[in-house]
Amino acid sequence: MYAFLMVLLISTGAIFSYLSNRHQRLLKKPLSKTYQKMGYGLFAMAILVGVFNFVGSAGVFIWILILMAALFCFPFIALFIKRN
Question: What's the number of domains the chain is made of?
């Protein structure tokens, strides 16, 4: 249950931080910087969930692994969306 919550928090935080970047290609206009701060807050909550759910170092490793995969994969979504 907490592992799913950790993945959900990291995924939502990665989406917010990507969509608030000025170089994103999914939206015509990037989101405000408030969403970027919310994304960083979700990352912080996810690492707390990971440390409390798993053994300390394993929680940090899983957090880094999922964060790396999310930040790598979400920008590629724009490549697969067809625009008119």
Answer: 1
